[in-house]
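> tool_call: predict_assembly(chains=two)
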Amino acid sequence: MWARIINTILGLWLMIAPSFFEYSSLAADNGHILGPVIITFSVIAFWEATRVLRKWNYPIAIWLIIAPWVLGYENNIAIISDIGVGVLVLLFASVKGKIEKNYGGGWSSLWKKNPKHLKQSE
Amino acid sequence: MANNPSYIPPGWDYNPATWDQRIPIVILAVVGVFIASYLALYQLEIIDTVWEPFFGDGSVIILNSKVSHVLPIPDAAIGAIGYFVDAVTGIIGGTKRWKTMPWIVIVFGLAVGPLGFVSVMLVVFQPVLFSAWCTLCLCSAVISIAMIGPAMDEMLASLQFMQRVKKSEASTWKAFWGVQSEIEKVK
């Protein structure tokens, strides 16, 4: 839970930081677009049944780490912020947390030939 | 009754269709209906001003933007309809509806998911296209995102049930629409 909360706060930071530190418009857009997406995946992953969405933040975090070069940032705060947030989001998204209940094999069961919920029902 | 063991899906520890699972989502959806309706009333020019405590004329800019009027009815009105569908499909059906009414659970899941997706997209548009924020639009987005996680467990139970239907001798079509004789054939 705490890992999801931290990533939610990091997403909020991406949304609000451009207003405080005179980001270039590209750097600001990057934060304004990815902040809400990180928040969305983190909040949905609060719940055990949809915890898997934490992993959807991996590609976004990796993009944040390389974005300062790809988009040619010049503002040092924007560079440090995006790389730092990228590393932290990657780190906390990798924390699985407690899964205390069973969900019949979860979402991946839907693609399996002999899923757990089918075996349990027999 | 809700805690009847036969109401728990196979391989699960709890029943995702109990009222204490569903009522919080329905309450969020109803709050969403109120917020979106209020914003729609402003966009339809039925009320003249809109409440905006933090971002100056942000709400005015966002709610009058081209994006919000790209469809025949304003976007907040579509949001209100979406939340209404969420609330109705959240209420309909008993506490075993993941099995007895798969169609309503799947419609519910499909209504909650895209509404959240569109809300996030609109949140992105606010600063990127218009350099403005709209407080109540952000509140609406928070609500629609918060509904997704708790709604999806029931959706998963119904999809797993449909998977078992497919592997049984029952008609997938009839079981989806909740025909009891077909549902009884499936474990």
